[in-house]
Amino acid sequence: MDDRNLQQDFEDQFNDVVSRLQSKQMFQSDWDIASFAVFFIFIGVVLTLVILVLIRCCCCCCCDDEKVNTHN
What we know:
Layout: H1 2-23, H2 30-71
């Protein structure tokens, strides 16, 4: 019984997405626009943090190599 409800919910959501794509109107309410903006802001923040971590790791490796070489 639970599987049937889950399958029906999935089909309903899939049909909703397909109908929005066909009508070329993805954002039908202000909530759609707000959730889309929040999602992309979240992705942007995560990517920014990943880039900062990569920069930190690369700079630390370079700086550590220079410090080791200067002390010898």
